[in-house]
């Protein structure tokens, strides 16, 4: 410091040239770390002062160790936590379903983005054209002109192969909704206790399923609440719910048929009345302190297979709303149940009562479709790979 230049810059540059990427400062503060950051030529280096002015020594030390650890330095955490009783734990599950959020190894795309169907399936059109000496099919597959010279073949082959590889990777990212039979469904289960059945007022829609009568036939204490589809008065709906429960009763469940009010709301014609009234019902249940699970019934709101189709776009909106309600108010959510027809027959009502009675193996399923084949539940799975030509056209 007295007789020669410190050459701090040269010293840091020499360390950087030697491959040093992590710097621990042993001093009363982080002055040298701040200076050294201006000396390195790359931004990838980590600077961690072990002591900081105005901070507890233990906090500053652990912070520096953590920064070094994230930079790849091996820290003996077992020695650090020795005697503290700390131990490793699994990553947390998804908040409400108590299941792992992350995909299991078996469901992840193959390494390198390979096509789940295998390379042979991807190359099949090319080799079929070659084996059959089909010039037209070969030129169409490679997207080249049959009159082009042979010198154009290699670039075309290269471009075709790259194009298939890209589509193969994209196919591993694609997922779709499927419907699966509900496993181990006990159709003998039946609901009990006090149930609220909320419907649009008479005349709003015809063909309402006789859910209330079916519940009464099983011995449930049913309290019906009919709401005007044109009114979305939150306080008024909450008062109706309190009156229906007589103030001192706890509901075992709530069944909503409001989705069947498909007509546009008079004050908000862009939205079906049933969608807005369903949102009001959820708010009113909270105001009335009714924590019973809410089940929203629809008819023809989802398609469970190629032969099935969505018959009501208005009611399909309730399924979108219901999935949001499930996330924001899990404490008073039961699920969505889609019926095959508004005028439900005895078998459909039996299966619906099985769902309401807890036949879904502990209440884990909240998106269920009642069909002639039985109870179906919604799943997300890998979508079938699309041909490259289809993917190109879509892109």
- Beta-strand share of residues: 15-25%
How many strand units? 10
Strand order of the largest sheet: 3-10-9-8-7-6-4-5
List the total number of helices.
13
Fraction of helical residues: 25-40%
Give me the Rg, rounded.
32 Å
What distance separates the N and C termini? Answer: 66 Å
Order of helices and strands: HEHEHHHHHEEHEHEHEHEHEEH
Question: Tell me about the biggest sheet?
Answer: 8 strands, mixed
Give the helix/strand class.
Answer: alpha/beta
Q: Show unreliable segments.
A: 106-118, 390-395
Give the rounded overall mean pLDDT.
80
Tell the overall outline: flat
Describe the structure in your own words.
The chain has 395 residues and is α/β, with parallel strands linked by helices. It has 13 helices and ten strands. It has helices spanning 8-17, 31-37, 57-70, 77-81, 119-131, 135-142, 153-173, 211-217, 234-244, 273-287, 313-328, 346-356, 388-394, and strands at residues 22-25, 46-49, 175-181, 194-200, 221-227, 253-256, 294-299, 333-339, 367-371, 374-382. A hairpin with a 2-residue loop joins strand 9 (367-371) and strand 10 (374-382). The protein starts with 7 loop residues before the first helix and ends with a helix. The model is unreliable at 106-118 and 390-395 (pLDDT under 50).
């Amino acid at each position: 410091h007295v007789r020669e230049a410190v050459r701090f810059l040269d010293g840091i540059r020499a360390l950087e040239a030697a491959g040093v990427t992590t710097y621990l400062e042993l001093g009363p503060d982080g002055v040298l770390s701040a200076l050294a950051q201006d000396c390195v030529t790359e931004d990838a280096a980590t600077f961690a002062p072990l002591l900081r002015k105005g901070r507890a020594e233990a906090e500053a030390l652990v912070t520096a160790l953590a920064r070094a650890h994230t930079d790849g330095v091996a820290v003996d955490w077992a020695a650090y936590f020795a005697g503290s009783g700390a131990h490793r734990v699994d990553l947390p599950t998804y908040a409400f379903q108590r299941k792992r959020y992350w995909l299991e190894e078996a469901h992840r795309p193959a390494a390198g983005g390979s096509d789940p169907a295998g390379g042979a399936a991807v190359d099949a059109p090319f080799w079929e054209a070659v084996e059959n000496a089909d010039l037209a099919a070969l030129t169409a597959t490679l997207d080249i002109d049959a009159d082009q010279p042979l010198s154009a073949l290699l670039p075309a082959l290269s471009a075709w192969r790259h194009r298939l590889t890209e589509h193969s990777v994209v196919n591993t990212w694609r997922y779709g909704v499927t419907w699966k039979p509900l496993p181990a469904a006990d159709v003998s289960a039946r609901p009990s206790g006090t149930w609220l059945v909320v419907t649009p007022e008479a005349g709003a829609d015809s063909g309402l399923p006789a859910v209330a009568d079916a519940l009464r036939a099983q011995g449930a204490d049913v309290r019906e609440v009919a709401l005007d589809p044109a009114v979305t008065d939150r306080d008024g709906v909450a008062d109706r719910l309190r009156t229906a429960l007589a103030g001192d009763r706890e509901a075992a469940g709530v069944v909503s048929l409001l989705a069947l009010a498909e007509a546009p709301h008079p004050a908000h014609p862009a939205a079906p009345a049933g969608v807005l009234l369903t949102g009001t019902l959820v708010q009113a249940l909270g105001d009335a302190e009714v924590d019973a699970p809410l089940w929203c019934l629809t008819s023809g709101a989802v398609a469970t297979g190629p032969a099935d189709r969505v018959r009501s776009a208005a009611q399909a909106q309730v399924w979108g709303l219901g999935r949001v309600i499930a996330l924001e108010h899990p404490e008073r959510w039961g699920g969505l149940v889609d019926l095959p027809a508004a005028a439900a027959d005895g078998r459909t009502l039996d299966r619906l009562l099985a769902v309401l009675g807890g036949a879904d193996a502990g209440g884990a399923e909240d998106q269920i479709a009642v069909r002639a084949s039985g109870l179906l539940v919604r799943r997300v799975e890998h979508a079938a790979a699309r041909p490259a030509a289809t993917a190109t056209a879509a892109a």
